[in-house]
Amino acid sequence: MAPTEKTDLLQGTLDMLILKIVAxxxxxxxxxxxxxxxxxxxxxNVQQGSLYPALHRLEKRGWLSAEWGDSENGREAxxxxxxxxxxxxLAQEEASWNxxxxxxxxxxxxxxxxx
Amino acid sequence: MAPTEKTDLLQGTLDMLILKIVAxxxxxxxxxxxxxxxxxxxxxNVQQGSLYPALHRLEKRGWLSAEWGDSENGREAxxxxxxxxxxxxLAQEEASWNxxxxxxxxxxxxxxxxx
DNA sequence: TTTCTATGCATAGATAGTCTATGGTTCCGG
DNA sequence: CCGGAACCATAGACTATCTATGCATAGAAA
Lengths: 115, 115
What we know:
The structure is a homodimer.
Chain A: H1 14-23, E1 27-28, H2 29-39, H3 48-60, E2 64-70, E3 76-82, H4 84-109
Antiparallel strand pairs in A: 1-3, 2-3
Helix pairs in contact in A: 1-2, 1-4
The structure holds a DNA duplex (30 and 30 nucleotides).
C-alpha cells in the first residue's frame, strides 16, 4: 500500500515498533498501542486488529514473553516482556530500518533537473 | 513484512520511488530500476516482477504516461513521463513519507530506561 | 436506570503490495 | 555458438495490515 493518508503505519515497521516499546519496560497490549500513538504525536495509530495478531506472532517467534497481570486500572491485562532473542531482533530491525530509510532519503534527495 | 535483510524495499515506498525517478526526466522501466539501485548505493533493489506491475498501476491511475522509443543502446523501450497529476501525487507521498518516517524516528529515539 | 465511552482481549476475512518463478526477444562478446 | 545483459511481461504465492466484529468490565453521563 502506498504510504498515503489512508495508512496508519509504514508497512513493515510494526514489529520493530512493538519491540521497541516493550524494550522500554513491560507493557500490556493496549498500552503498547497507546504509547505508540503518544510518542509519535498522534501520527502512528496501530489498529487492534493489527496489534494483537502481531503480538501473538512475536511471542510465537520467541521475541516476547507474555504474562497475565493487573493493569494500572486494576483490570486483567496481558503484559509483555522482551526476551534476549527479541532484543537481538530489535537491533537487527533497527539497523535494517536505518539502511533502508537512508536509502529512500537518497532517492528523495536526488536533484530535480528539468521541467 | 518485517524490514529484515530479506526485503529489497521498504514496503509501500515503491510508487513514490518510481515517481521520483521519473520526475528527474523520462526513463524506461529497466532504467528506473537501475537508477534506484545506483542512487541508493546498491541498497534498494526493485525486482522486475515488482517494477512492471507497479508501472502499469501508476499509468492506469494517470500518474505516468508511457511511450515507446529507443533506449540509449538503440533498443526498443517504453519511456515513462510524469503527468501533472503524478507530480501532485508525488508531493503527497513525499509529505506522507516524511510524516511517518519522522514518527518512526520518534519511537526509535525514545529513551531506553531499564534492563 | 440506561447508555455511552474507555479499557482490555481476540478472530475472521478482505485487501493489496511485493517477491519468486517463469517466459520471451534482441544484441553483444568470447 | 553460447552466455549474459538489456528490455518487456505475467502468474502465483506470501504476508502484513486493515476493517469489521465479537466479548467483558468499569465509570461517567443522561
